[in-house]
Amino acid sequence: MVSVGYTLLCEQAGPVDLIDHGIRAEAAGFDHLLISDHYNPWVEQQGHSPNAWPVLGAVAHATSRIELMTYLTSPIRRYHPAMVAQQASTVGVLSNGRFTLGLGAGENLNEHVVGAWPHVTQRHEMFEEAVQIIRPLLDGEKLVYSGNHYEVPEAYVWDRPDVPVKFAMAASGPRSCELAGQYADGLIAVQPEPRLLEMFDRAGGTGKPRYGQVAICYGPDEAECRRTVYDQWRWFGLGWKVMAELPEPVSFAAATQFVREEDVASSVPCGPDVEAHVAAFQRFVDAGFTHVGLVQVGGPSQVMFLDWARDVLLPRLREL
């Protein structure tokens, strides 16, 4: 059975509401929680961006069953990789082993707050070094590391769960799939592309989890949902090569000034039709993903969505 997730999107809710949404998602019957780990919202209309890690700790303490995962943490600029390993292990303890660390190379939007955003070639080198640091620290090893980008004179994570925290890596092409197959316990992809899973398998990922995420906007009024998606989600179609480079929320607004409402609504199901939302989820299932998280676009609609998901959407998804 595919694990059905709910996304705590830090860009569209404050920390107190996010904790409440996590508790409600567990009560509704979701299998796992994803949480975004950003410094800025994508566009100013979203209006939020609290630190994900305190929220994770609170959600871990307030829940008992649901699996937890960052989607995604970048360990190359804003966080040093040794600190990421410590944070992840702490949440692993607080959650009694329910936490998986999701890693990606990040975006200028969130990482430039601590310094210049490196060139993509350098970022890939930094990311590989980061996972070489994180992996042994999660596993309880004392680490001494000297690389081209990071120095760890000596590090050891003292508080760890009984079973070491696992981590999954985002991938979008052959090299990143190879890295994920070599180092990670799972693959993350933002598009339902079977070729990525095939490359991951060939690199050593056979039998490991594959995590995806799909955006929807449920509500009783389809027209209102379309407006919400256009207002808050029109940046998503830019593609990762563009999204990784833009530095500010106003940059995303400028880059999408000619996007139309119908352009966004064509890729994000909107309104009350459960079958439209199921079809979006099904594309990831058909591609071979084992874990698929849902993003309900629109901050104020989260409680309404979670109640509807409990009563209507989740029973339907369990039939797949």
TrEMBL record:
Q: Which CDD domains match?
A: Tetrahydromethanopterin_reductase
- Keyword tRNA-binding in annotation: no
Single GO molecular function: oxidoreductase activity, acting on paired donors, with incorporation or reduction of molecular oxygen
**Highest taxon above the source species:** Bacteria
Q: Which SUPFAM superfamilies match?
A: Bacterial luciferase-like
Q: Which UniProt keywords apply?
A: Oxidoreductase
Luciferase-like domain span: 17-291
Question: What name does UniProt use for this protein?
Answer: G6PDH family F420-dependent oxidoreductase
The species this protein belongs to is Micromonospora pisi
**Taxonomic placement:** Bacteria, Bacillati, Actinomycetota, Actinomycetes, Micromonosporales
